[in-house]
Write a structure and sequence with these properties.
Order of helices and strands: EHEEEEEEEEEHHEEHHHHHHH
Number of strands: 12
Distance between the termini: 40 Å
Strand order of the largest sheet: 1-3-8-5-6-12
Structural class: alpha+beta
Shape: globular
Oligomer: single chain
Largest sheet: 6 strands, mixed
Helix content: 40-55%
Length: 273
């Protein structure tokens, strides 16, 4: 039976002038909904950005990493880092833009995933829902927005970083393979089939995995599958669905693989991650 495939649509980022943070408003927030076929094409700006998915899941790509982000997690993107957003399913996003210098230290110069506490989530939702203050706005309302911004910065400083990033290579041949696996991780189960799809030999790709990413194909694929599994688990999908989505014949086979890979059963791994 024939099926129709809807083409993906890439949108430009938000107007920089509209959401640019300033000394008067050091943290800006906005809400945006992206359907499962919609993306935001690569761009960068002079301020830091935090991307939170309230519902749904997105993949945030930077030059060296890709982050598969379920709800209750957020991606930090430092100033001047090129990034793009790809939707995995319809997502309700909240985005913060932070004036450079709000978060200082070497850790904030790198893109990474952060755990979002209940308080931080509530603050982000509140700030992104507030209208821009008008010139004649009440002083108390302006001070309230600044107080929320200060609390957001403090909560971000306390947020726990999570190892959910997947390294991406520079080499075009290996990048093509990694991008194909990100789009459909269960399309092939063996290395040889993936190598044939991108037109490179397994030996060449194995060498590139070692040289570019310091890992093997099997280890990189494990990180990818675990990231996808976390996203599905965050959406309360049953274990049987997660197993099937990732190419496993049964929930027990998937559970055994997770236990071998991370040293704990999926229920505990999902809870701790």
């Amino acid at each position: 039976m024939a099926t129709s495939t809807r083409l993906r649509t890439s949108h430009p980022p938000a107007n920089p002038a509209q959401f640019q943070p300033s000394a008067e408003r050091p943290v800006r927030g906005k809400a945006r909904v992206l359907d499962h076929h919609e993306d935001i094409y690569p761009h960068h700006h002079a301020w830091g950005q935090l991307v939170l998915s309230v519902s749904g899941a997105v993949r945030v790509n930077t030059e060296h990493h890709t982050f598969i982000v379920p709800p209750s997690r957020a991606v930090w993107i430092p100033p001047n880092v090129t990034h793009a957003v790809t939707t995995i399913e319809k997502a309700h996003l909240r985005t913060l833009y932070l004036l450079d210098g709000q978060l200082e230290g070497p850790a904030w110069q790198q893109d990474r995933v952060l755990e979002v506490s209940g308080l931080l989530r509530a603050l982000i939702l509140e700030l992104s829902a507030l209208p821009d203050p008008q010139p004649d706005a009440d002083l108390a309302e302006r001070e309230r927005q600044l107080d929320i911004s200060r609390l957001i910065v403090r909560e971000l400083q306390r947020a726990r970083p999570l190892s959910l990033g997947i390294a991406l290579p520079r080499d075009a041949r290996l990048r093509k393979l990694c991008e194909a696996m990100l789009e459909s991780p269960s399309r092939h189960s063996g290395f040889e089939a993936w190598a044939a799809e991108v037109g490179a030999s397994p030996r060449t790709l194995s060498r590139l995995f070692r040289d570019e990413l310091g890992t093997s194909f099997a280890q990189w694929r494990s990180q990818l599958l675990l990231a996808h599994a976390l996203t599905l688990a965050a959406r309360k999908r049953p274990m049987s669905h997660i197993a099937a989505e990732l190419g496993y014949a049964s929930a027990s086979a998937f559970s055994a693989w997770v236990t071998r890979t991370v040293g704990m059963p999926p229920s505990r791994f999902f809870a701790e991650a």
